[in-house]
TrEMBL record:
Coiled-coil segments: 161-256
Domain of life the protein comes from: Eukaryota
Keywords, alphabetical: Coiled coil
Pro residues bias (residue ranges): 362-372
Record organism: Ilyodon furcidens
Region of interest (Disordered), residue spans: 354-404
Identification of the protein by name: F-BAR domain-containing protein
Pfam families in UniProt: FCH
Keyword Coiled coil: yes
Record lineage: Eukaryota, Metazoa, Chordata, Craniata, Vertebrata
Biased composition (Acidic residues): 394-404
Start and end residues of each F-BAR domain: 74-330
Amino acid sequence: MKNCSDAFTAKRPCMLLVEGPGCLTDVATKNRLITALLTFFFGRVSCRNNILPRISVSDHNFSPQSVMKNLHFKDFFWYPDLTSTAGYDAIIQYLSEGKRTCKEVEDFMKARASIEERYAKDLLGLSKKVCGHNEMNTLKRSLDMFKLQIENVSLSHLQLAQSMREEARKLEEFKEKQREARKKIEQQMDALHKHKSSQFKRTMDSKKAYEQKCRDKEEADQNMNRNTNTNNTKLVEKLHLKAQQAKQNAEEADKLYQQNVINLGKIRDDWLKEHINACEIFEKHSAERINFLRNTVWTHLNQLSQQCVTSDELYEEVRRSLEQCDVQEDVEHFVNLRRTGEKPPAPVVYENFYTGQRSPTGPAPTRLPPPAVRRGPLPDPTQNNRDDGRQSFVEDEDYSVIQY
């Protein structure tokens, strides 16, 4: 093997060059190669006495506490505008999409369970139909075992459908649990957002009023200074009172503005704490949701794989029964049970119609045509020969062709 250690330490793909089929026959060499591969993909792996550690999937499962070690919600969902909820809204939208995903997976599980249930019922009905009812002996036993195991397969699919519905129910409960917890936090945050927005508006209004009072005070002071040297004492007193009133109003507006700023600062501090707390909880919920959905799909696939194993085990019973099916034995069983005789019927012999002789063997001879003359000559009607017993009825007066 060449140029492998540099590639693994550099954390980049490499090509393993294996020289000959016998280069990995040594156990220590194999273990070093596998250790290097595990180190490349999973980090440092300790290997003592050339014995590799056992690696399981659960060793690399992401727990809610280990998700997002470097990036957190509370650090990346702020916005310069104090009244803006853009960061919070982005998190809420992400949670809503996660909730929708849970609903979609839940509906998928329920639909898949319905498919399995319909398939199980159809398969169960199929197993009840007549199949090989007239067969006998070993083949009949195999066909009966076939029907029985098909029925068991249908029952296992029905159980699988129930398991899927149970997983869908757990997912629904998890979704509702997170929804309730999220609802409380959202209500608190909505109240804080409203309070913060109203206090911010009140503060900005007081700021505007304070600035206007300050401008009024400056204008009153300028008027008083412009008329300081006038001889109209009433006007001077009036401007002085106006300046004093403007100063008092400005001071009151200043105090109100400062108080609103202080109140807004307190509300902001409370909001910051609640926002950080909500981000941490929402981040935890997101990690739990991702982990739960991952485990749910994993469990679903395990159930499907287990169903395949169960079906194969049931089919194996049928295969074992088919192995016991003996063709010759079934044939002999039928012969012994239904035999009708050991002697075949005798052959049909030829019988001559004229000679009455039978030909036991051989084909029937060709039949000759009958002779041309089968009767003697016709009697002469002019001769009245009474000696031979013949009599002509033509001269008989009572003879008539018509019979009555």
